[in-house]
């Protein structure tokens, strides 16, 4: 027997989050899609809007780097049918307004209003030839990146898989697990096998992430098979200050003292200080960029 559809014209996003810069002038909107095709359509049209600096997708996550403010989208059917018309950071909340024509209006309103972790919303009527708007309010979050290396041995384990499984386990409303990157390092003689470190990204509600970090560390200490595990925590909106150090790690051997200096200079929290600290620090700036981070840097240099 064919069952009835609960809401035949709404495909709700799984989650929507907003990571704000400290000043509140820039926000990264993270939308976890339930339908890749619909989200790809949205990304094409939304990226044309004046507030959107850049956009990309990473698996089921669609990410929009936007300026805050309000604009007139001047929508045109089939060419620029929907977009983000305003983004405001208000205290510990972020207010995002989407506008769209016809079916784009349905997507711009109800599909996002019903997303997970949305605090509240308001929408106009959508569908047909209408211009519709939908506003959602989500918690203001900050980016938190954890870098890990050296959890395995010559015969047991793989850092990337352990870190992913831990990240899924500690995921919670206060600290949402967003992305995972394997970072290819220079194959030094002391490597276990492939010389790869790992970075995982979380979208956290400020001041409420400590429990997640403690649970992460406890699980890492429980399941690592190495005495030299390194783990660092970075709370920067943009950790690009570590790219110079990371590139050195991807091109040549780097000392433990260099890793320690880089971590301290960038304000990282050193949670576990084994020799794996070298790769853990190098992993941080490659958060959310797994296609780039897996490429051996020394091969790029040779060519």
From TrEMBL:
InterPro entries: Methan_mark_11, TiaS-like_TCKD. Signal peptide: none annotated. Residues 145-268 form the TiaS-like TCKD domain. NCBIfam families: methan_mark_11 (TIGR03280). This is tRNA(Ile2) 2-agmatinylcytidine synthetase.
């Amino acid at each position: 027997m064919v069952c009835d559809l609960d809401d035949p014209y709404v495909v709700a996003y799984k989650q929507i989050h907003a990571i704000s810069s400290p000043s509140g002038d820039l926000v990264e909107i993270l939308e976890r899609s339930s339908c890749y095709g619909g989200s790809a359509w949205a990304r094409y049209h939304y990226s044309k809007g004046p507030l959107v600096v850049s956009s990309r997708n990473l698996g089921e996550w669609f990410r929009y780097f936007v300026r805050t403010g309000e604009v007139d989208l001047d929508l045109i059917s089939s060419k620029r049918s929907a977009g983000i018309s305003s983004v405001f950071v208000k205290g510990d909340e972020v207010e995002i307004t989407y506008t769209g024509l016809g079916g784009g209006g349905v997507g711009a309103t109800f599909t996002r209003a019903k997303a997970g972790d949305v605090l509240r919303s308001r929408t106009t009527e959508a569908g047909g030839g209408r211009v519709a708007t939908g506003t959602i309010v989500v918690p203001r979050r900050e980016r938190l990146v954890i870098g890990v290396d050296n959890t395995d041995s010559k015969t047991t384990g793989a850092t990337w898989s352990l870190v992913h499984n831990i990240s899924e386990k500690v995921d919670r409303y206060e600290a949402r697990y967003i992305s995972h990157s394997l970072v290819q390092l220079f194959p030094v003689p002391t490597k276990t096998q492939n010389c790869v470190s790992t970075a995982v990204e979380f979208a956290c509600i400020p001041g409420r992430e400590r429990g997640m970090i403690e649970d992460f560390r406890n699980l890492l200490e429980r399941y690592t098979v190495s005495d030299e595990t390194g783990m660092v925590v970075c709370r920067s909106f943009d950790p690009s200050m570590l790219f110079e150090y990371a590139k050195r790690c991807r091109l040549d051997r780097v000392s433990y003292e260099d890793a320690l200096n880089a971590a301290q200079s960038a304000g990282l929290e050193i949670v576990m200080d084994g020799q794996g600290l070298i790769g853990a620090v190098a992993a941080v700036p490659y958060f959310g960029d797994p296609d780039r981070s897996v490429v051996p840097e020394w091969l790029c240099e040779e060519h």
